[in-house]
Amino acid sequence: MGQFKPFHLAFPIRDIEETRQFYGDLLGCDIGRSTDKWIDFNFFGHQLSAHIKPEELTLAKANEVDGKNVPVRHFGVILPWEEWHSLANKLRDYRIEFVIEPYIRFKGEIGEQATMFFLDPCGNALEFKSFQDESQIFAK
């Protein structure tokens, strides 16, 4: 898939500490620089910057995909197959409420993938997915 190029994403939060616990403690993201107004995370090799801006938090609107209501505004990462399953189990153990429970989407079709959606403490939607065959990530 070519040379890895990390992306940067800034997003709104309401509280630094609850965000640090969620992304740092639960998801295992290393913490970078921070102030009392923002905090950076190493999100699986990508830079997330969480900024206190509660007035920017909105309820996620959804589109139907594969019979599920997928939050339109979301971000996440594609994990190796076993790592995705380990994370799904860890989230279940932590009793995370899923927007879309972990399942296999497009089963037997082009783009078959494991996926799950859940919200961070501020209501930002995250999708974690995995492909057994990475050539399917951009398959048409």
UniProtKB/TrEMBL annotation:
<feature type="domain" description="VOC">
    <location>
        <begin position="5"/>
        <end position="131"/>
    </location>
</feature>
<dbReference type="InterPro" id="IPR029068">
    <property type="entry name" value="Glyas_Bleomycin-R_OHBP_Dase"/>
</dbReference>
<protein>
    <submittedName>
        <fullName>VOC family protein</fullName>
    </submittedName>
</protein>
<dbReference type="Pfam" id="PF00903">
    <property type="entry name" value="Glyoxalase"/>
</dbReference>
<dbReference type="InterPro" id="IPR004360">
    <property type="entry name" value="Glyas_Fos-R_dOase_dom"/>
</dbReference>
<dbReference type="InterPro" id="IPR037523">
    <property type="entry name" value="VOC_core"/>
</dbReference>
